[in-house]
């Protein structure tokens, strides 16, 4: 688990917004190295990609009792990070992940 105070946020949230989430986790202010580390955590099978299935269970990396994302939430998340449209967040996705995070901090 990355951090704990989140769990209440996650458990009460009935809609997931990754931008809000990243801001809450504080990921928006993390360095590239730390983002790469998070990428490694999310890529559970170490395939080098974050696939839809891994995204779906994304919140569980932060809290074991968190729910899975809905299909719609997963797809929105995936679409935001999948810059080349192959249906998964790849090596380029580390950059994409950072890009997803940076705007989140700028708009809050
Ligand atoms: Ca993977
Ligand atoms: Ca991709």
What would the CATH topology be? Recoverin, domain 1
Number of helices: 6
Quickly name the level 1 CATH class: Mainly Alpha
Percent in helix: 40-55%
Following the backbone from N to C, one meets helices and strands in this order, namely HHHHHH
CATH superfamily descriptor: EF-hand
Overall outline: globular
Terminal CA distance reads 25 Å
Mean pLDDT: 74
CATH architecture: Orthogonal Bundle
> What is the gyration radius calculated from CA atoms?
13 Å
Let me know the largest β-sheet.
Answer: none
Proportion in β-strands: under 5%
Number of strands: 0
Secondary structure class reads: mainly alpha
In this entry the ligands are: calcium ion
Keywords: Calcium, Metal-binding, Muscle protein
Protein name: Parvalbumin
Binding site for Ca(2+): 43, 45, 47, 49, 54, 82, 84, 86, 88
Function: In muscle, parvalbumin is thought to be involved in relaxation after contraction. It binds two calcium ions.
What does this structure look like?
Belongs to the parvalbumin family. It comes from Serinus canaria (Island canary). Ca(2+) binds at residues 43, 45, 47, 49, 54, 82, 84, 86, 88. In muscle, parvalbumin is thought to be involved in relaxation after contraction. It binds two calcium ions. The structure is a single chain. The chain is an all-alpha fold and 108 residues long. It has one domain: Orthogonal Bundle (Recoverin, domain 1). It is 54% helix and 0% strand. It contains six helices and no strands. The protein has helices at residues 6-12, 18-25, 32-42, 52-56, 71-81, 91-106. The mean pLDDT is 74. Bound molecules: calcium ion (2 copies). One calcium ion binds at residues 82, 84, 86, 88-90.
